[in-house]
Specification:
This protein is α/β, with parallel strands linked by helices and 432 residues long. Helices cover 31% and strands 25% of the residues. It contains 12 helices and 19 strands. Strands 1-2-3-4-5-6-8-9 form an 8-stranded parallel beta barrel, surrounded by 5 helices. Strands 10-11-18-14 form a 4-stranded antiparallel β-sheet, with helices on one face. Strands 15-16-13-19 form a 4-stranded antiparallel β-sheet, with no helix packed on it. It is globular and about 65 Å long. Bound molecules: (3S,4R)-3-hydroxy-2-oxopiperidin-4-yl beta-D-xylopyranoside. The site of (3S,4R)-3-hydroxy-2-oxopiperidin-4-yl beta-D-xylopyranoside has 7 residues, from loops.
Length: 432
């Protein structure tokens, strides 16, 4: 039967508009495809020596749209002798990713661990020069092929100090990190440049130390684009996990979950789901990488991954896929009112700065007012992008001339500084 051309056009239009305008998209069936629905990637750490393992590669190729080298791009792997670079395994990983349309995270240019022994024996200017040369050579070799580089890995100390970790690199001078970022930018201007660390899975002293460094880098124009939260997790998830992602995003950097794995136990699937939802809730959280394919591939011995040794999907896998399919940020946060306000605090002993995000509801705002309860004993000392009435107790912040109009579902930010402890209650937000 011949179908008249006009009918074909109508059928085509119906199909095309259906694909765009229909209700929720059909649930994707792989992690990468599902993450891509919100513009994110879902990646996995791999090792080139396993590329001949068929069950392993079947999962890698089916599920993921980003790869990172678990070890093949580290300093000991890429520059085993000073000035002699070996990229065979790393190149294999990159070309495999490229052939399948996957992006690549680069891990890592400088780190205190897995250094070649020749570098471990250097110090002072000799080590600094060798380190910066390493950054330049490796980033140049992969120029144009890396989505994001972990330029510096794990440079902060654990515990309550919020300070840098002691290492041979740190002993070359506190500016070694910014020198590395500048060298990486010069070598590969297209790659996003990340600082990556662990035990940063909530608002704590270590993550605050990193936060302060990133804020300082942004203020001084040191090139940094992203922060990696490794997220090697145990049996619980810090209640401030999402808040921590948000506060980095609010500094103007992307956040990536870079090495996710979670101790097997009653909560594993829930924690995987919660981490995924937290990332999706923050627009600038742009991707998640799990640190290995099957439990048997993991560097840990507590079965922390999404596939069991037989390559079967675990409950944790389903939790992640469902969370990814549930979609991106829901705006506005309060859901019902004309607008909502969320506070992110950066606190120190005796003071804090607060960043407040005001999000419009279903209708555009033409002016807004936010009410904040300042804990007793403290006071607001300055505000930006808003004017305040009162400084203690109930304090009201109103828009200024240029940020009163917020489109439906859109948001703006203002901030204030205060003495004492920061407000903990969710502020009120009213239109007008
Ligand atoms: C681990 C690898 O998984 C292991 O195979 C290797 O023996 C040691 O390093 N933080 C990081 C990763 O940034 O590079 C580490 O990877 C895990 C902790």
């Amino acid at each position: 039967m011949r179908i008249p051309i006009r009918v074909l056009t109508a059928l085509f239009l119906a199909a095309a508009s259906g694909a765009v305008a229909a209700g929720p998209a059909e649930a994707a069936t792989t992690l990468g495809a599902s993450a891509a629905q919100t513009g994110r990637y879902f990646g996995v750490a791999t090792a080139a020596f396993k590329f001949s393992d068929t069950p392993y590669m079947t999962i890698v190729n089916r599920e993921f749209n980003s790869l990172v080298a678990e070890n093949d791009m580290k300093w000991d792997a890429t520059e085993p002798q000073q000035g002699r670079f070996t990229f065979t395994n790393a190149d294999r990983l990159v070309s495999h990713a490229q052939s399948r349309g996957m992006t690549v995270r680069g891990h890592t240019l400088l780190w205190h661990a897995q250094q070649p022994s020749w570098a471990q024996g250097l110090s002072g200017a000799a080590l600094r020069n060798a380190a910066i040369n390493h950054v330049t050579q490796v980033a140049t070799h992969f120029r144009g092929k890396i989505h994001s580089w972990d330029v510096v890995n794990e440079a902060f100390a654990d515990g309550g100090s919020g300070a840098r970790r002691d290492s041979n690199l740190q002993r070359t001078g506190n500016d070694w990190i910014e020198a590395a970022f500048r060298a990486a930018r010069a070598a590969d201007p297209g790659a996003k440049l990340c600082y990556n660390d662990y035990n940063t899975d909530g608002v704590n002293a270590k993550s605050t130390g990193i936060y302060n460094m990133v804020r300082d880098f942004k203020a001084r124009g040191v090139p940094i684009d992203c922060v990696g939260l490794q997220s090697h997790l145990g049996t619980g998830l810090d209640s401030t996990y999402q808040q921590n992602i948000q506060r980095f995003a609010d500094l103007g950097v992307d956040v990536q979950i870079t090495e996710l794995d979670v101790q097997q136990g009653g909560n594993q699937a829930n924690i995987y789901g919660a981490v995924t939802r937290a990332c999706l809730a923050v627009t600038r959280c742009t991707g998640i990488t799990v640190w290995g394919v099957r439990d048997s591939d993991s560097w840990r011995d507590d079965n922390p991954l999404l596939f069991d040794a037989g390559g079967n999907k675990k409950a944790a896998y389903t939790a992640v896929l469902n969370a990814l399919n549930a979609g991106g940020p829901t705006t506005p946060p309060p859901g019902t009112g004309a607008c909502g306000a969320q506070v992110t605090l950066n606190s120190w002993t005796g003071g804090y700065t607060a960043t407040v995000r005001v999000t419009a509801g279903a209708a555009a705002l033409n002016g807004w007012t936010v009410g904040v309860t300042v804990p007793s004993g403290g006071a607001v000392t300055s505000a930006w992008n808003a004017t305040n009435t009162g400084t203690s107790g109930q304090v009201t912040f109103r828009n200024v001339g240029y940020n009163g109009q917020v489109p439906a579902g859109g948001s703006i930010e203002f901030g204030f500084q205060g003495t004492g402890t920061g407000p903990t209650a969710t502020p009120t937000c009213t239109a007008g």
